[in-house]
# Entry
Amino acid sequence: MKRLVKDGLLPVLGVSVALLACLFAWPGSASANSIVIFSSGVNSSGALLAVGATDPHYTITSSPCGATAAITETPNAVYVADTTTSQWITSTCQDDVGDFLYEITFSLAGLDPSTAALTGSWATDNEGSITLNGVSTGITLGGTSFGSLTPFTISSGFVSGTNTLVLDVHNDGGPSGLQVNISGTASPSGASAVPEPASLFLLGMGLLGLGWMMKRKAVVRG
# Structure
């Protein structure tokens, strides 16, 4: 210890260790923010609506009977049950054969669309498909998918500002409807990239190596 102090190496090694500790504790960019988007059949606080209420977030923009409101319904006996965070919604002409386009919009204002992702689960009666901003996501459901909630993830196709998600439900006849649980995240616009662990390790080892070289140089001088 005396030799280190004498050679002036203790402060150098101390700084190196301190810098290494700071690097591994570096928080990087802020955590991803939640995207404000709602599951089916809930109010603006996320609580379930009463049966027969109009869903304030989903609109049926096209159906066999035209554009209509999406309303909550009591699940058919063969449907997967409502959850604590979502419930079945349908149209006033739910028995008509054809496509029902359930639309919801959400904003990525202040968020980086390249980092956005939506995850959730859904059930449809009958066939279902999802498009984002007019482009197919490739996510589909078969005609008997109403008995369980199927997971999905959307990680591309987002744009700055307002985004439009459309869930197309085709009814083959009889009752029809949609249930979807959904949430999402995205990083703030302009957020700094988080340093990779390998980069942190290499930089830290470089600092320690610098301290060792200075120690060796001091020993040679002595």
About this structure: The radius of gyration is 28 Å. Confidence is low (pLDDT under 50) at residues 1-29, 198-204.
